[in-house]
């Protein structure tokens, strides 16, 4: 897989920690993400993956550490030093967040077209014809029949809902998308199609993404690089193929071998 090597990181995470009461959910996580790079965060249930994702996506502030994002202007900005209004603007323009459960990322009772158009309206687009044609284009890009544009996602299958959620996030051409277990909970064949689509879109759009998954096959297929978490710590990180083919940490070795031995 070609690895993009631009000069400066898009996201820089340093020593991020978080506790819930006495429980340490995340301890000293650090990594950089480069423009156009897809990073998988893997680890078993409870290892701190969602806590990490929420901390770096400005959804839940860490107790310690910094998260810096490179704005389009080139300026590296601490996301927790931003005002709430600045964070919200980022979240609906340059960032996307794909939830595991599509219902958490969609408005289930408004039309598919409105779900896609909403983020564009948030950027100031008001022209009905343009909103509708962009929404129709995006439905096609995520392989949803444009004839369903006026239907609400409540009437969609699980796979269609997830594809709609992806369209809703990507319509503003974000530079960074966070994804929390985007394919789990779907049938295997539906997962495979969704993974193909995600791979195609991340490449076409040169999208940087951080994907939380417990499924090493998802990491293998989508990610340039991966970090492995155990009990709140990053225990191994590196190029995906290297980590999966030659894991160094005993925990990663266990994860990889448990996948190989069904
Ligand atoms: N809101 C919360 N209150 C208390 N403890 C929490 C909370 N959220 C997470 N934790 C604890 O923090 C640790 C890390 O949880 P986290 O959800 O980040 O793990 P995960 O790797 O995402 O797990 P899963 O794959 O099951 O979603 C766990 O021990 C969990 O019980």
From TrEMBL:
<protein>
    <submittedName>
        <fullName>Putative phosphonate transport system ATP-binding protein</fullName>
    </submittedName>
</protein>
<keyword id="KW-0547">Nucleotide-binding</keyword>
<dbReference type="Pfam" id="PF08352">
    <property type="entry name" value="oligo_HPY"/>
</dbReference>
<dbReference type="InterPro" id="IPR017871">
    <property type="entry name" value="ABC_transporter-like_CS"/>
</dbReference>
<dbReference type="Pfam" id="PF00005">
    <property type="entry name" value="ABC_tran"/>
</dbReference>
<dbReference type="InterPro" id="IPR003593">
    <property type="entry name" value="AAA+_ATPase"/>
</dbReference>
<keyword id="KW-0067">ATP-binding</keyword>
<dbReference type="GO" id="GO:0005524">
    <property type="term" value="F:ATP binding"/>
</dbReference>
<dbReference type="GO" id="GO:0016887">
    <property type="term" value="F:ATP hydrolysis activity"/>
</dbReference>
<dbReference type="InterPro" id="IPR012700">
    <property type="entry name" value="PhnK"/>
</dbReference>
<dbReference type="InterPro" id="IPR027417">
    <property type="entry name" value="P-loop_NTPase"/>
</dbReference>
<keyword id="KW-0813">Transport</keyword>
<dbReference type="GO" id="GO:0019700">
    <property type="term" value="P:organic phosphonate catabolic process"/>
</dbReference>
<dbReference type="InterPro" id="IPR003439">
    <property type="entry name" value="ABC_transporter-like_ATP-bd"/>
</dbReference>
<dbReference type="GO" id="GO:0015833">
    <property type="term" value="P:peptide transport"/>
</dbReference>
<feature type="domain" description="ABC transporter">
    <location>
        <begin position="11"/>
        <end position="256"/>
    </location>
</feature>
<keyword id="KW-0472">Membrane</keyword>
<dbReference type="InterPro" id="IPR013563">
    <property type="entry name" value="Oligopep_ABC_C"/>
</dbReference>
<keyword id="KW-1003">Cell membrane</keyword>
């Amino acid at each position: 897989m070609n690895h993009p090597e631009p000069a400066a990181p898009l996201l820089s995470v340093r020593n991020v920690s978080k506790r819930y009461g006495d429980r340490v959910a995340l301890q000293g996580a650090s990594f950089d993400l480069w423009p156009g790079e897809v990073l998988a965060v893997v680890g078993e249930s409870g290892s701190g993956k969602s806590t990490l994702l929420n901390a770096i996506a400005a959804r839940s502030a860490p107790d310690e550490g910094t998260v810096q994002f490179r704005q389009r202007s080139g300026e590296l900005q601490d996301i927790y030093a931003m005002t709430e209004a600045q964070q919200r603007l980022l979240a609906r323009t340059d960032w996307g967040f794909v939830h595991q459960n599509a219902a958490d990322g969609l408005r289930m009772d408004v039309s598919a077209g409105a779900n896609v158009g909403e983020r564009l309206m948030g950027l100031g687009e008001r022209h009905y014809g343009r909103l509708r044609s962009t929404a129709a284009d995006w439905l096609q890009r995520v392989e949803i029949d444009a004839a369903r544009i006026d239907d609400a996602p409540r009437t969609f299958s699980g796979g269609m809902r997830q594809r709609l959620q992806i369209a809703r996030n990507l319509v503003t051409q974000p530079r960074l998308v966070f994804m929390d277990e985007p394919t789990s909970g779907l049938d295997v064949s539906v997962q495979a199609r969704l993974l193909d689509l995600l791979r195609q879109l991340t490449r076409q759009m040169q999208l940087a993404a951080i994907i939380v998954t417990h499924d090493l096959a998802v990491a293998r297929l989508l990610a340039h690089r991966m970090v492995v978490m155990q009990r709140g710590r990053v225990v191994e990180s590196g190029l995906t193929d290297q980590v999966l083919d030659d894991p160094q940490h005993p925990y990663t070795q266990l994860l990889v071998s448990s996948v190989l031995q069904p």
